[in-house]
Specification:
With about 230 residues, the protein is of the alpha/beta class. About 30% of the residues lie in helices and about 25% in strands. Helix 3 packs across helix 4. It binds S-adenosylmethionine.
Length: about 230
């Protein structure tokens, strides 16, 4: 994990126009925080940390309506029909409501936290297969992929949830980079490397086929929206 000195140095260089990426030590192309107790994966610890983070930040929204509108425009222009969507890791459901407003589609949202039902969401761990969701959605959206303890499993599960011609939409930023990894945000990858990492996760079954670079920034960082399709 980056030290205070690392963070200050990075901030100093970024203010002067340099792009600073941490080279992940363990996985090669991406960084992954491991929830291990004596070398064994501790799912209870992962869930407890995610629920605590969710409750601490329950009133906050990272998604923004302008970016969601850009995504909806792209979906409308490139699809005959967009009738159903699934948003993973939706916290208080803000993006679910924006997708419903701009697409007039039925949109389901998930969150791992027990607060999910308070916000009209399904309490569900997005890594897990849910039989009735397989092959069902015209789009699946998330900006919470940095919360995946097993990103390859999560991406494979999400692609499996797409109906024929459906798109998986990943909203990414520099905040999702290896330097942002901690016990709440276990997965970090540089936006310029993510399409390559997704090729590895896809094992020839899915890939990034489209992208939006919104003109605005969020919390000082640029945004990358990647669209994945089955290939
Ligand atoms: C950074 S927040 C993003 C919330 C929302 N998408 C937004 O834009 O404001 C990440 C959310 O993902 C949820 N989350 C973390 N791990 C999850 C998992 N395995 N399955 C489903 N949701 C998860 C957290 O509880 C949290 O509400």
């Amino acid at each position: 994990m980056p030290s205070l000195m690392d963070k200050l140095a990075r901030k100093y260089l970024m203010r002067r126009g340099f792009s600073v990426s941490q080279i992940p030590a363990d996985e090669g192309d991406y960084a992954l925080y491991r929830y291990e107790s004596r070398g064994v994966f501790d799912y209870g610890r992962y869930k407890t940390i995610q629920e605590a983070g969710n409750k601490r930040k329950i009133g906050k929204v990272w998604a923004d309506e302008v970016t969601i509108e850009l995504i909806c425009d792209r979906l409308r222009k490139s699809s005959a029909t967009v009738r159903s969507g699934l948003c993973h890791g939706s916290r208080n459901g803000a993006e679910v409501r924006w997708f419903e407003k701009h697409l007039a589609a039925d949109v389901v949202g998930t969150d791992i936290s027990e607060t999910a039902s308070d916000h009209g969401l399904v309490q569900w761990d997005f890594h897990e297969r849910r039989e009735e969701w397989v092959g069902r959605f015209d789009f699946v959206y998330t900006n919470s992929h940095d919360h995946a303890y097993d990103p390859k499993k999560a991406f494979q599960t999400w692609v499996e949830q797409l109906a024929p011609g459906g798109r998986l939409i990943i909203e990414h930023s520099m905040a999702h980079s290896p330097s942002g990894v901690n016990e709440l945000d276990p997965f970090g990858v540089d936006p310029r490397i993510l399409p390559y990492v997704l090729l590895e996760f896809g094992e020839g079954r899915f890939a990034v086929t489209d992208m939006i670079r919104p003109p605005h920034k969020k919390a000082g960082t640029s945004i990358w929206v990647f669209f994945l399709t089955k290939v």
